[in-house]
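Continuing from the previous page of notes. For each protein in this section, the sequence appears first, followed by its structure tokens. Read the first protein now.
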Amino acid sequence: MSVVAVAAAGVLMGLRFKAPALIAGTAVLLIGSLVWNGLGLPGYVTITRFLILAFAMACAYIVGLSISVLRKRTQA
């Protein structure tokens, strides 16, 4: 479920923002993972899981960016 949530956030970022937003989003994901593990909540976030989430967000960002470009071309 976390992959779906991160992918949705990536698509929304791609529709609205440019590359610095992806860097900031990845930083928020990293900080959130560290806090999640530090609080001892269930579902420990490993390095592999973090990398999968970051990859999903980056791919979804590219999809959102592509949709944004296509929408601008059809409007022009």
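Done with the first. The second protein uses the same format. Note its length before scrolling.
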Amino acid sequence: MTHLSIRDLQKISGETIGALPGPTAVKSGDRTIGLLVPLKAADPDRLAAILAQAEALAKGRNPAEEDAALAPFGEVDPIDWSVEAVRALMSGR
């Protein structure tokens, strides 16, 4: 499905939207007026693997060097993506 019309959008269910293969144009006549993006639940195993990979990559980081390299671009928002920091963030929800 390359697009949905406004009329199609009024008739489809949430399950149908969730089953869309990806972002789908919403059209009114020949004019694209929006984009419908179905939200998918994250795969916890894949998310854990990505977090482990990020943790491994972070081991060789030197935050002071990174801050110095980014200084010409203005203030840098330091973010700690360590496993412990993410777990602490998630436990507060």
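What the second structure shows: Residues 17 and 38 are 6 Å apart (CA to CA). The chain has two domains: 3-36, 44-92. We return to this in next week's lecture.
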